[in-house]
Amino acid sequence: MVIAAVNDEEVVRNVLTAVKPFIGQGKVADYIPDLARVDPRQFGLALATADGEVHTAGDVTTRFSLQSIIKVFGLALVLSRDSDAVWKRVHREPAGTPFNSLVQLEMERGIPRNPFMNAGALVITDQLLTDRGDAFDAVRTFLRAESSNPEVQADTVTATSEATNGFRNAAMANLIADFGNLTNPVDRVLDHYFRQCALMLNCHELARAALFLARDGIRQDGSRILSARDAKRINAIMLTCGTYDAAGDFAYRIGLPCKSGVGGGIVAIVPGRYALAAWGPGLDQKGSSVAAAAALEAFVSLTGCSIF
Ligand code: GLN
Fold it and tell me: Helices (DSSP H) in the chain: which residue ranges?
């Protein structure tokens, strides 16, 4: 259904209308017990424009844990320092496997398929620890600045809940270390990874925080975190790998660089124009929010904004 929309404010209102039937659909992530307690009947949407306006609809003040969305920020910080060295430690190919798969790791000798799978994010976390001495704090500092919320924090209950049940991520980190692709102790890398995943933002803050990817690497204060080339490259990896074994379907339905997280958030970038953050805790079988994906699909049909 195409509804004519004349301005950004009207677009977000119309997206909310279109998404109502999907709110509450899907299943909250329960392999992290703390996430299983979240009410699935929530939904928020924020559209940040390249010149810094933010338009919102639904519940945009409730914070949720970013989970895998944080991987975009970690990668940006690593690339901002040494843009090419990291590609010796992690590939940038779609995997076609779930986000927490170990299969390719063994066959490819501890070099993860891409930085957005858990295995790749563990390597990026290790690189951040080496480059900056602290991966969690580096990412939190960046989020605080870009979201204009100096109080941004990780939910320690969520981080502990994941750490206590994180056997698969621990297996992955140990396998990567066995192949010699971690330089910091396994437990330290895991601790920083779990705490990064538990960082909390609301949709309004998240859309603002991701805006540098729509602005060729330019931050809120006008300084540059990335070259335009590296910003474009992150968007390319989001498109091809940001939603794991659903990346093809996301390209087909939405056609924008997207990054999902099992907290129910999805960030999408319209290069040069917008950063969007949509959130609904109910997930599909591949770990992406049903309502947030429906919102992005509605946004693209309303505006025609797709990179294709
Ligand atoms: N913290 C989660 C995990 O490692 C992130 C996964 C996700 O959001 N897809 O399993």
Answer: 8-19, 70-81, 103-107, 118-132, 135-147, 156-165, 167-178, 186-197, 203-209, 228-241, 247-253, 290-303
Residue 3 pLDDT greater than 60, yes or no: no
Q: Whose CA is nearest to atom 4 of ligand 1?
A: 118
Q: Which domains does the chain have, with CATH numbers?
A: 8-303 (3.40.710.10)
* pLDDT of 1 over the 50 cut: no
Whether residue 252 is annotated as binding a ligand: the answer is no
Average pLDDT over residues 112-140: 97
Q: Could you tell me the two tokens for 113? A: 């398929």
| pTM for the predicted model, two decimal places | 0.96
Task: Report the residue among 73, 118, 199 best suited for mutation to probe ligand 1: largest number of ligand atoms under 8 A from its CB.
Answer: 118
Q: What is the pLDDT of residues 14-65, one digit of tens each?
A: 999 999 999 999 999 989 998 998 999 999 999 999 999 999 999 999 999 9
- Verify whether ligand 1 is closer than 6 Å to residue 265 (CB atom): no
Q: Is the CB of 262 under 6 A from ligand 1?
A: yes
Complex prediction ipTM: 0.97
Residue 301 counted as an annotated binding residue: no
pLDDT reported for residue 251: 98
Length of the chain, in residues: 308
**Alpha-carbon distances of 284 from 22, 71, 154, 193, 245, rounded to whole Å:** 11, 20, 25, 23, 12
In the reported structure, the alpha carbon of residue 289 is separated from the centroid of ligand 1 by a whole-number distance in angstroms of 13
- The DSSP secondary-structure symbol of 29 reads -
Helix (H) or strand (E) holding 274: strand 274-279
Minimal CA–CA distance to 65: which of 293, 244, 260, 241? 260
Q: Ligand 1 center to residue 2 CA distance, Å?
A: 34
